[in-house]
Amino acid sequence: MAIYSFVLQQQQNDQFEQVTMKSLEGQVEALDLLKKAIDEQASTAKVTALNTLIMMDERRVQDLKEWGKSVGDINK
Hints:
Layout: H1 2-70
């Protein structure tokens, strides 16, 4: 009886390990997907920031041109 109990306990331990491993593998996959999503969001944020900076510089150049015209700067 003791041997049967031991074998049964080993089987239950093996099943528990298998379930735990599958769960951990699922968590790793979820973390990989999350990392990819975060990386994509970071890239999008960088592009958006660069576009904003470019637009601000373009507006500053335009403002300087307009200012130059208004004060009669020959270099405009």
